[in-house]
Amino acid sequence: MKNLLVETANWATDKDPLIELRRLVFIEEQNVPESLEIDGLDPDCLHAKATADGLTVGTGRLLPDGHIGRMCVHPDYRQRGIGTLLLKNLVDQALSAGYSPIGLNAQCDAIAFYEKNQFVIDSAVFMDAGIPHKRMIYKT
Predict the structure, then answer these.
(1) What is the fold, at CATH topology level, of the domain defined by 5-99?
(2) pTM of the prediction?
(3) Among 17, 29, 83, which Cα is nearest to 54's?
């Protein structure tokens, strides 16, 4: 993996590769309906992106209410620490903006990842887009 860079994204200029990656991961891989994934909220969000080998390989967003979402890493680039770097970027953006609490809805199979990154479970299991989730809150 060459030249890994995780940074705050500019939605106006970065939206096409970010949406393309989310389409691959959420719509194609996880069968999330496009109408749920492309929800019209992106222009109001802060975004993070990861690039490597000249490709956009990870993304996530921070909603205006301090909720982190749409975290994903390209299948070919998983298990390399990119998700952790993306999450740190988004938490840093949230802290800088004064959001409290910082929350997210974690897919149940990703809970251990978020727990390693200072998030704690804050709800029972609920379904979102046909996938079991739990709400989690960032603990400083």
Answers:
(1) Aminopeptidase (3.40.630)
(2) 0.93
(3) 17
